[in-house]
């Protein structure tokens, strides 16, 4: 490829400038702490509770999006109906909507006097706003487009002839989906899950309003990092950020390895 060395050099320089240097600064600031100080900063009861909520809600939101985002992608690709273009455009709304606006809107909808919250809390006794459930709702909202937009092009490029061949050999609709369609879209579902999870772990704006930010109950880790920064505890904030970065990297690496395995298996 002409210009390969120049392109590769520019790519490495750009990634170093935009990604590696900021991440290195986070680690270098953390190294100013002693091991005891680092361990105390990242394992306090309040921080551990925020880890549990952040990663747990992110995983749950990503799983929900894999299921329902896959259904949305399937409907948009396989069916024609009035208003399809509008629904297709609405999928990208979480991308364009400012996260703070999304958080305020979700809080207004699910609070005790909101459209949905009035029924859920008043009739069913199920509280959403200012609870961990509200965090899951917010993270599901911002992660939906990642799954839909990764699965949709794979479904569009899928060979319909394979499904027709399976049907002609006597496979029913469920067998055709589980043995022909699902293996094809599994790597893209994993990619969408990884992207939704990664986006959710660092989400701040859409969560702080609906979460209520109660320590040990509905306080997310990004908010705790902001609290540390406001207290001028920069080393403590970066220490918590390093833990989130390492855990997220390990989980994303695992998902990518599973994705590569799924692609290799489907290729065989």
Automatic annotation (TrEMBL):
The answer to whether keyword rRNA-binding applies is: no
Q: Where in the cell is it found?
A: Cell membrane
**Annotated Gene3D superfamilies:** MetI-like
What CDD domains does the record tag this protein with? TM_PBP2
How this chain sits in the membrane, per its record, is:
Multi-pass membrane protein
Which residues does UniProt call coiled coil?
none
Spell out the InterPro entries in the cross-references.
CysT_permease, MetI-like, MetI-like_sf, Sulph_transpt2
Q: Which domain of life is it from?
A: Bacteria
Q: Where is the ABC transmembrane type-1 domain?
A: 51-255
Main role? Answer: Part of the ABC transporter complex CysAWTP (TC 3.A.1.6.1) involved in sulfate/thiosulfate import. Probably responsible for the translocation of the substrate across the membrane. Part of the ABC transporter complex (TC 3.A.1.6.1) involved in sulfate/thiosulfate import.
The UniProt entry, under NCBIfam families, shows: 3a0106s02, permease_CysT
> What is this protein called in UniProt?
Sulfate transport system permease protein CysT
Source organism per entry reads Rugamonas rivuli
Q: What is the lineage of its organism?
A: Bacteria, Pseudomonadati, Pseudomonadota, Betaproteobacteria, Burkholderiales
């Amino acid at each position: 490829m002409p210009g390969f060395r120049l392109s590769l050099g520019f790519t490495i320089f750009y990634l170093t400038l935009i990604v590696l240097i900021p991440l290195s600064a986070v680690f270098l600031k953390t190294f100013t702490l002693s091991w005891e100080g680092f361990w105390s900063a990242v394992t306090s009861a309040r921080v551990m509770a925020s880890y549990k909520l952040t990663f747990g809600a992110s995983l749950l939101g990503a799983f929900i999006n894999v299921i329902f985002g896959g259904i949305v992608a399937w409907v948009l690709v396989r069916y024609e109906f009035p208003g399809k273009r509008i629904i297709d455009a609405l999928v990208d709304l979480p991308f364009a909507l400012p996260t703070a606006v999304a958080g305020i809107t979700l809080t207004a909808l699910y609070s005790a006097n909101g459209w949905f919250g009035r029924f859920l809390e008043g009739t069913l006794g199920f509280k959403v706003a200012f609870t961990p459930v509200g965090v899951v709702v917010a993270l599901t909202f911002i992660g939906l487009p990642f799954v839909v937009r990764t699965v949709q092009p794979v479904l569009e490029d899928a060979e319909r002839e394979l499904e027709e061949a399976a049907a002609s050999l006597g496979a029913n609709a469920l067998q055709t989906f589980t043995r022909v369609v699902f293996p094809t879209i599994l790597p893209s579902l994993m990619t969408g899950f990884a992207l939704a999870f990664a986006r959710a772990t660092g989400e701040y704006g859409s969560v702080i309003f609906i979460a209520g930010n109660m320590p040990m109950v509905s306080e997310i880790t990004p908010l705790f990092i902001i609290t540390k920064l406001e207290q001028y505890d920069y080393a403590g904030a970066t220490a918590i950020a390093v833990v989130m970065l390492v855990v997220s990297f390990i989980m994303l690496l695992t998902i990518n390895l599973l994705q590569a395995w799924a692609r290799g298996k489907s290729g065989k």
